[in-house]
Amino acid sequence: MKSFVTSTAFALLASTAMADTITLYTSQPNADAQRTVGAFMAANPGTEVDWVRDGTTKLMTRLRAEIEAGNPQPDVLLIADTVTLEGMAQEGLLTAYQSPEAVDYYAALHSAEGYYHSTKLITTGVVYNTGVETAPTSWKDLSDPSIKGQIAMASPLYSGAALIHLATLTGDETLGWEYYENLAANEARAQGGNGGTFKAVASGEKPYGMVVDFLAIRNKADGSPIDFVFPEEGVSYVTEPVAIMSSAKNVEGAEKFVDFLLSSEGQELVLDMGYIPARDGMGVPEGFPAREDIKLMAFDPAEALANAEANKAKFAELFGAE
Amino acid sequence: MMNVAQQNGGSRSEARLLSAILIVAICLTLAPVLRLFVEGVTDQGSPSLTLMRDVLAQPSTLSALKHSLVTAGVGTLVSLVLGAAFAFLVALTDLRAKAALVFCLMIPMMIPPQITALSWTQIMGPSSVLLKTLGIAPPLGAPQPLYSPEGIIFLLGIQHMSIIFLTLRAGLRSIPQDVVEAARISGAKGLRTWWQVVMPLTFPSLAAGTAITFVTALGNFGIPAMLGIPAGYATLPTLVYQKLAGMGTTVLAEVSVLAMLIGVVAVAGILLQRLCQSRQKLHLVGSTSRPLALPLGAARLPVEILLWAVVFAILVLPMFGLLATSLVPAYGVTLRFDTVTFASWYEVLFRQPVTSRAFANSFGLAAGASVALVMICLPLAWLMERRKTRLARLFDSLLDLPYALPGVVLSIAMILLLIKLPFTEATLYGTIWIIFLAYLARFFAVMFRPVQASLKQFNPAMDEAAQSVGASLYRRLRDVIFPLSAPAAAAGAILVFLTAFNELTVSALLWSSGTETLGVVIFNLDDSGETGMASALAMTIVIVVVVLMALIQLFSRRFPKGVVPWQT
Question: Containing domain of residue A256, as a range?
Fold first, then answer.
């Protein structure tokens, strides 16, 4: 029995190591992940991609468990934020790769050693249901007592983008932790990821919220009764970086995948799916203001990494489940 | 003395086979539970209760325990009221179209709880596409009423009313008509017959059904996860899930304690059930010649209309909600002829590779578990019936445990047991085998009990006759035992298949890349905001399950008696 089990386990290991398959862990929405993978496979016939989608935090938990069990599955990660990947790079879990496509990107959008490359710009702004009386224009509007109990937001304990958002806003001198304290006092609901937040706003259950841009703008175009605002103070942003695991079984395929995402073809796809591409000179999708008109709030990745656990703990205390 | 020696000599192969299968069965069902217990009471290898004390002292543990007890307890009451009303009316009166009613009442049990929750949230609150289309949606900012303890209680009540209905109906059918007639001749009328004659006789089965319902509601994950997590209302199973999903295997020891806590409450429920079942033996009057059919008279039509209206409200209405949500282009859009789109259906069924993968996984796991369990349970039940060794009797009293314990508990136990296989470097964590083994453990009792019951009625003379003409053990199993217990095994296999096909609680913690089950895919789609796609897939699964059940029902006349589990 034991030898049977062992051999089965090894057979499974062997099958995942097949040369022309790569395994991708991603936090992109399912439909986008499928389009990205489909376009990559069309451009690179012969390389298959198996992919798994989950929230960044849950995905990382799963990956940690797999690493502990000695069998990490993915070759490539395409997740919300650079902070998580910076941490993994420091632990030696990532492989450096200098993609030839990287020359067309701002240096700040990839790690100098090539551990990860940003693929798009996803900002978090204010969303509201078009049925409300007054439209919010700033972050501060969400802490206004007149809309008490009507605000939804993603939880940093679940979503990578929400954790960055928290680090950005609390790091801002006009907002700071006081802003989050006011949100908590205003009974803002922080549960789950951006998907749930969007749903709550679109359904009118919580008519105001903080959500990632593409989800709101894309669904608005499909007829959802919502609108998206780039607040006065500016927006926080994540860059959905891609990285290759140091335990990757198919490094060559993984590098091809990175090159494809960064290529102008891959970035056209990003634009077409309704995201702001990270590559220079690509323009913005319909429904977005010009890129130079989008005010990005200051954000320090190193500090965010150092404070991640403390931020989560403080947030949990403020918004904590009862 | 002579007799004993002969029996031992004649069936040495039986003894060996019994020990072999018993060891496999114990490894499957009891080893994980034992492993979990060890984890909870040790600290780095040495016995310690520190961890247990710490976890039990956390406020989140206590509030989750309270929430679990409240939702499961009150939910059971809701099931009791609904299920008992239906059971009394269907079993005791002259209602028409009983078979159709019974079939419809079975469906809620076969629909996975996360789909129940998803469909009900679609027809309630300001988000309701259906209410919006009808123009009666609540105002903006009105909370979704189901994201609350009351919502969880209500849906748990509906989900499990079939359990009460089935157990109580079985009990009612064994009341002989003579008893009621005797009461009538002595002058008892209408409700008094019911209260003084029928009620006391059915109390044991009612109590047993209540205990099973409570334990099942306590372990339910789909409903509190879909409704409680958005409201920040955690029950013990969702607390375990959130901890494990958020922090990974580092908190395994901590969640083991939580899992044991759920286990303790569940075991208390089982013991209660045992107690009631032992009382039931004294009460049962034997099988009945003709079931009761009290005439309802003029009240028959109104009662029928009422019952069907309830069936419509709990079964058809939420399905409309699910359908409406799956047909709009974006969440919150009103369903009109010009807004109807099949984009969600197309995307989830034909473009997402995870869907076909999940169908294959769920189908393979469910079919594999059914077949494997038939192969283990049939010989085991027979050998245990023939040779009542002390180990066999002990196993008999404990084998319900993995089914009665909530799925989350079993999952944690399986991870602990299989994350590092003893004496090897290999792990089953992250492979489909861990889910498969967990399913075998979980559904063992579902297969074993009906087979055991059928073999108890079986006359050993036939087997002995075959033995006396020299039939080998294998031959007797194949030609005598298997055909005789086949209907019970088939009924068990159908139940195992339908339950495993829809399963979420176990696989939610055990899935990994490539081993997603259908339950996991729906849960994850909804979680990531793709409610349209989640609804479309949920509808597909409901259709598949109902078609499967209808096919079984349709062919039930050709099957031997006892194959269709919902026709007793």
Answer: 2-119+239-288
